[in-house]
Amino acid sequence: MILKLCLGDLRHEGLLSLCAVASLVAVIAPLLLLFSLRYGILSSMEHDLKANPLNLEIKMLQGYTLKEDFFKTLRADPHTAFVVEMTRSLSVTADVSANHKAKSGAECIPTATGDPLFAYSAISNLQDDHDAVISASLAEDLGCAQGDILKIAVPRVRNGRHERAVANFKITGILKASLATGYKLYLTLPAITAMEDYRDGYEPLIFSDGSFLNQGRQSYAKARIYAKDLDSVEYLSKKLRQHFQIADKLFEIEDLKALTRVLNFIFFIIAAVSSTGGLAAMGGLMLAMAARKELALCSLRISGLTDCGVILMLIAENVVLGSLAFLFSLLLYLSGSWLFATYFAPLLGEHKAVSVLTLSHLLVFYLVVATGCAVLSFLIARYKVLAVPLSLALRRD
After folding, report:
1. What separation, in Å, do the N-terminal and C-terminal C-alpha atoms of the chain show?
2. What letter would DSSP give residue 203?
3. What is the SS3 assignment for 216?
4. If we measure between CA atoms, which residue out of 284, 350, 352, 295 comes closest to residue 318?
């Protein structure tokens, strides 16, 4: 019965109902677009910053004496996503050749299971000490591809004689230029360690016959470190900066956080002002509609409709109007979002989200609209409609 009365009254007051819907649409639609822009742009920036593992890397700029306890503690830290030992910088350059082409001074970098660069590029971890992943620029200049054999030559001077060890490695992956610039090779830690040991005068496996091994290694010069997330970068940077000279992307991360706070504050102010204006306009229309139907409502009350029934009827009417306004606002938002995507696609790329709202966002918006309409309806019904004495309303007639 309440629903039937509600729908009949809305049809009877069609013009006022349309005005109420239009006033809500004028508030809801811009807020949907504003929030979608805030969420879409910042989410894209944050995703790009998080997704690129280079932004989570913390580099040691100098060589140190890092023992096993340091690496054990660092790996146990929940803010650390990946860490692997590194040898001296001068020990990890090598000459490489493939397909009758050669390049000198390639940088060899240690890797291990769980390397963020490999995970980001969908490259499998190295399974053998004779496997290698190379940078795109090195692969292009050598004219090699995945599966080819790469020769790595390590020179040294021992007892006044120039010597050179050469080992074959299978290319199991190629890192794109955005992740690895210049000539870079990613090898297992045993392979990197063997390069340094060979230069130090030992005869290690991989680059020699294993006849004279370095049994006394107890430390490494550096560590290749990646934080778990953006917040972890700040934590690890402050922790490591106390003892080491490091480089990171902390400033870029802080800039993003500052931008997020600024945009959130701007959105909050605009949303608060718009919402207040919208609620005032909606409240005024509801009050006018309630005043127009005082006599009809009094007649219903005399006919047996309870006070609770009157309140439920007004709440149902305005929630229906709010729902219609939300649907129209959603259509306008989708149209605006499509226009944004079409306009900005040539500038930012098709995969850059500009205007984005998830289903949960839309659900929250709708619940806010419906709740606001219900609360205003209850207040007007309780303190305006039901406050009118039945005898006074009948005398007006």
Report:
1. 25
2. B
3. coil
4. 284
Determine contact, residues 253/238, Cβ cutoff 8 Å.
no
CA atoms of 391 and 314, how far apart (whole Å): 21
Integer angstrom CA distances of residue 62 from 36, 111, 234, 250: 45, 19, 20, 19
What is d(CA 260, CA 333) in angstroms, rounded to the nearest whole number?
A: 22
Sign of CA dihedral 300, 302, 304, 305: positive
User: How far is CA 6 from its chain centroid?
Assistant: 45
What's the gap between Cα 180 and its chain centre?
22
Q: How far is Cα 68 from Cα 75, in angstroms, rounded to an integer?
A: 11
Is 376 in a helix, a strand, or coil? Answer: helix
Mean pLDDT for back-to-back runs of 10 residues, the chain (397 residues): 59 70 83 82 74 89 92 94 90 89 92 93 92 94 93 90 92 91 93 93 91 89 93 91 90 81 81 77 75 66 68 80 89 87 68 75 88 83 67 54
Q: Is 153 helix (H, G, I), strand (E, B) or coil?
A: strand
Query: Residue 386 is encoded by which pair of tokens?
Result: 């039901």
Structure letter (DSSP) for residue 292: H
Quote the tokens at residue 95: 């000459």
DSSP 8-state code for residue 255: H
- Asked if 75 and 83 count as a contact pair (C-beta separation under 8 A), the reply is yes
The angle subtended at Cα 366 by Cα 364 and Cα 371, nearest 5°, is 95
Give Cα 49 distance to the centre of its chain: 7
Q: Are the CB atoms for 24 and 329 separated by under 8 Å?
A: yes
